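In this section we turn from sequence analysis to structure. A common task in structural bioinformatics is to predict how a protein folds when a small molecule is present, because the ligand can shape the pocket around it. The inputs are simple: the amino acid sequence and a SMILES string for the ligand, here zinc ion. Study the lines below before reading on.
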Amino acid sequence: MHEWLQDLASALGNPEAWQALRRVLTKFALSDGLQYVGITFALWITLHVLLRKRLAHRLISGWPRRGEVRRELGYFTSTMVLYVFGSAALLGALALDKIEIYADPLQHGLPWLLLSLPVMLLWQDLCYYLSHRLLHTRWLFRHIHAVHHRSREPSPWAGFSNHPVESMMTSGLPLTLLAFVPLQQDVLLLYVLHQVARTAHGHAAIEIYPHGFARHWFWGRFTSTTHHHLHHESIRGNYGLWFTWWDRWLGTEQADYLERFDAATGPRPAPAEAVTAARCRTAPDSSSAPHSARSAS
Ligand SMILES: [Zn+2]
Ligand SMILES: [Zn+2]
C-alpha cells in the first residue's frame, strides 16, 4: 500500500485525528464564511437594496425575482460547504508536501512574488473558458450547468449558485497549478478575494463601471457585469471569466456587447424625462408601446 494511504488509514482510526479534522473544518467554515458570504452580502445589500432606486437606470435588463434569490442562496450555501472540504483537501496536500504555500514573501524571490498572482489569474481564466465551453455541450449543460443558468437575471448570490460538479471543475481545476509552482500565502488570499469579489460583481445585474470602460484599449480587456449578464440572458457567447480576449480570439463574444454596455452606462434620465416615460407607461394605449427592458420584475 502507498505510504500516504497507510498514514490516512491509521489516521482514520485515530479519534484525535477526527477532532483535528473537525477543528480544521470549523476554521475554514468561519474564514470562508467571512470571505465569500461577507463580500457577496456587502455587494448585494449595497447594489440591490440600499442603492436600488439610485442605480435603477444602470440595470442591464431587470431585477432578479425574490424566489430566484432564495434558490441562489440555497445553491450558494451548498457550494460553501463544498469549498470548506476543498480547503481541508488543500491543507491535506500541504501536509503531504504535494504543494508548497510559503509564509516568507521573499522565499522564492521578489519577481515570483509579483508574478505569481497574474500567472494564477491567467491560468484560472484559461481553465474557466475551456471548462465553461465544455459545460455548454448538450449533456453537461442539461445535467450540470443548467443549475447556474436558471438565473436569467442574476443577483450577486448567483455567482456561486452552481451544481457541485461545476464548482469542483471551475474552482478546483485552476488550483492544480499549485502542484507545479509554490505560492505565497498572502498571494493565495488575494487570489481568493479577487475571485469572490469579481464573481459576485459579474452577477450584479447592474453595470457600475464607467461609460467607455468596455471600449477602452486597456480596460476593455477586462470583463464587466454586462459581459457575463448577456451570457445569462441568451445562454450562449461571452464565456470568459476575467478577460475578454478568449471570446474575441475565438469569435464567441456577443455581437451587441459594446452597444449593450453603452446602453447600461448611458446618462441618467433627467427627472422630466422620467416623468414623461412614466406617463407613457400608464397611458391607456401603453400596451402598444415597446416594453421597457429595464422595468423591475
Ligand atoms: Zn454558462
Ligand atoms: Zn454566471
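Residues 88 and 102 are 17 Å apart (CA to CA). As an exercise, try to locate the residues that line the zinc ion site and compare them with your own expectations.
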